[in-house]
From TrEMBL:
It is an enzyme of class 3 (hydrolase). This is peptidyl-tRNA hydrolase. The keyword Disulfide bond does not apply. Keywords: Hydrolase.
Amino acid sequence: MTGQKVLPLVVRIERADPPERTDALEAAALAVLTLLNDPRALGDGEWAEAVRSWEDIGIRKVVRRARGAEWRRVLDLPGITVTCGTAEVRVHPPVPLDDWPKDLSRLQVSGTDLTDSAPPGPAREVTLWINPELEMSAGKAMAQAGHAAQLAWWGSDERARQAWRDRGLAAAVRTADPAGWAALTGSGLPVVRDAGFTEIEPGSCTVVADAPWLRHGGFRPAGSGPLRSS
């Protein structure tokens, strides 16, 4: 697709001390929300045109991993680093699909198979519910969590957004109860449907974004661009 852009997300995975899976998923969601709220991505900011063109064509995200010197080189590129618990994720402004910066393009997509050492805590006011019937690598699930966070942001009015900012843009990522998944996807809440580039079938429902105010509204209507994930 001519002019297509993707949003690079890089998760730090040191061989001796990898992050918890849920921390990585929540860090990805926070990274996306932080980018969307950064002055450089708004108005006449230096990243704003790239963000707008990325949103117009689709909101495809690609997660790669880095450690050691790779991670240090990533920190030298334009972007924002966020931390959630044990996880560090750096989000970069959108780049052309076929023209990544060298220090990002050389990073591996595979190898993001993370686990949790203990069950995650309870859901929060904003919770991104993962489809319990799908098997996704941590990298794939991170991209999907980022999509869901973005849909939740688009579906929030300014009052809800400000309250969310005041809470640090926190969002929990949890696996849904299998018995309740159908009800979630049919509730009118924002649903991420995967484009099918990697790992799962096209059209699969991957994540539902839930918050009290979203239950009384909806998400950005068709015309905002298709969801694209990798």
